[in-house]
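Example 119, ligand zinc ion.
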Amino acid sequence: MKKSRESGFLFCGLCGTMLILKTTKCAECPLCKTTRNAKDIIDKNIAYTVSAEDIRRELGISLFGEKAQEDAELPKIKKACEKCQHPELVYTTRQTRSADEGQTTYYTCPNCSHRFTEG
Ligand SMILES: [Zn+2]
Ligand SMILES: [Zn+2]
């Protein structure tokens, strides 16, 4: 009789469906929604399939300066926000499918987060 203890897969105690690892701490049965503490059942196999990214998210560790860097890369334009009159807006452009219509410019106000389009 083969025991599947070492396979690293977890099965629902109620219906026998293979559990899905929802987080690093909790596994859930997709059928009956029974959850189990992953600690009970987790083994090294699974621990290694969880990416470093998942663990960081799980632990709530944010990447250093990731957000700030994103912001710095956004193009800005001297244009007043139509809501709060903030003089500089972040913008992105997108070419519409039809060449006749040209491109649409999306503006986001960094001050009040107001979004509007032009084009
Ligand atoms: Zn189940
Ligand atoms: Zn604004």
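Summary: Residues 5-59 form one domain.
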